[in-house]
Structures are given as structure tokens and as C-alpha cells.
Design goal:
It contains twelve helices and no strands. The protein has helices at residues 26-35, 40-50, 55-62, 65-75, 81-99, 110-121, 127-140, 146-152, 161-174, 176-183, 190-200, 207-218. The chain starts with 25 loop residues before the first helix and ends with a helix.
Length: 219
């Protein structure tokens, strides 16, 4: 015949006389709570509010603590937070994935990251040139300043009006039919002209200044 059990006594439960009472106060709980690391949801709010990142970027960063720590180390010396994310989730992530290494093994300290990012932000080096030519050199050259390396690699863009006008004039004179088409309303050709100037300057023409000069000469 089965017997139902309803109370702790039925299971032979009894207090252990050798265990001393353990009292946790509200103050203890608060101390433990403050000692806990930030949770992913908290980090997402922090990244969105303090670093002006999108929810998507913040979510990607918080999926990998090492990536998040790497971002924070660069953000401590560079104000271009979105640009940092673009670099880490683009060229840097591709490199670490291909080589099976952690971000910390890249060997580029935060200050050199900040310097390279600043070159791009100031339009001194294009992002494409920085990502494909300057970044690989920084991975092996652990000491030289990115600005000096960019100069040595002939990556620095020029905003010199005389040089830019020369390249623009050469392109427009070589494509008279396209110039006429542009003036008749085919405004999409501005991209073609920009591309030709880029080729003639070997990537050294400042895009914004070049675009301004093109528009002025084509008006």
C-alpha cells in the first residue's frame, strides 16, 4: 500500500546542528551587486548612450568580450567611435578570422590605431588605401608612426588646388563627348570623371576637393 508524504518529517529532513546561521544583509547584497561585471544588456545601453553606436553595432561588440575590450581601449584615445567599429568589424576581424588569432595578437596599440583612423577621418589617406596597404604594414611594423608610414608608401592624398585642377583638366579634355553628355543632363557621369582623376593621381586626389573642382568646371 502506497503512503503519501506531506511534511518534511516524512522525508526525514531535520536541521543540521553543526551549521551556523548565515545572515545576509541588504548592505551585503548591494556590495555583491556592485562587484558584478556589467551584463551584455547594460553594455549595449552604455555603448549606445555614451559612444553613440547603433543597437546593431553595440550588440555585435558585446557578443565577444575580447572584441569589446579592444574597442574600449581604442575609444579611450580616439573620439571616432563609429570609425573604430568599422575598422574592427571590417579589416581587423577579417585578419584575425583568417589567421585564427585573438584581437590582442594584432600588435597594434591603441595610439597607433587612433593615428591611422585620424588619417582617414581627415581625408589624408583613403579608407581603401589604409585598409589594403597601411594596415598590413602596421601589423608587421611595430614602431613607426602611421603618418610616416603612409608618406613612405605614397598614400597621402593631396588637396593642393593646382595639382587637383591639373588632373581634372586632363580628364575633362580627354573626354569631350562625356562632358557634353553631362552638361545635357547625364549627371551620373560625375562618378566616371572622379574615377579617372583617381587613376591619374594614383589615388592621391582628395575626393571632396576633386568633386568640388569638377562641379565648378562642369557648371
Amino acid at each position: 500500500v502506497s503512503q503519501s508524504r506531506y511534511d518534511a518529517d516524512d522525508y526525514r529532513y531535520f536541521p543540521d546542528p553543526d551549521l551556523t546561521p548565515f545572515i545576509v544583509t541588504d548592505k551585503d547584497i548591494e556590495i555583491y551587486r556592485e562587484a558584478l561585471p556589467m551584463l551584455p544588456e547594460q553594455w549595449i545601453r552604455e555603448l549606445v548612450t555614451e559612444f553613440a553606436l547603433t543597437d546593431y553595432d553595440a550588440g555585435i561588440l558585446t557578443e565577444d568580450k575580447e572584441l569589446l575590450d579592444y574597442f574600449l581601449s581604442i575609444a579611450a584615445v580616439s573620439p571616432h567611435f563609429k570609425a573604430i567599429v568599422n575598422w574592427l568589424l571590417g579589416p581587423a576581424k577579417s585578419y584575425v578570422n583568417e589567421n585564427g588569432i585573438p584581437f590582442s595578437a594584432l600588435g597594434i596599440n591603441p595610439e597607433r590605431w587612433a593615428s591611422m583612423i585620424e588619417l582617414v577621418q581627415q581625408d589624408k589617406v583613403s579608407f581603401s588605401a589604409a585598409a589594403t596597404k597601411l594596415f598590413p604594414v602596421l601589423l608587421t611594423n611595430k614602431t613607426d608612426d602611421p603618418m610616416q608610414l603612409a608618406a613612405d608608401l605614397n598614400l597621402l592624398q593631396t588637396s593642393n588646388a593646382n595639382e587637383l585642377e591639373l588632373w581634372v583638366d586632363e580628364v575633362l579634355l580627354s573626354m569631350p563627348e562625356k562632358v557634353e553628355e553631362y552638361k545635357k543632363g547625364k549627371k551620373g557621369l560625375i562618378g566616371l570623371f572622379m574615377g579617372e582623376v583617381k587613376k591619374r593621381s594614383k589615388g592621391k586626389a582628395d575626393p571632396k576637393r576633386t568633386n568640388d573642382i569638377l562641379l565648378s568646371k562642369l557648371s
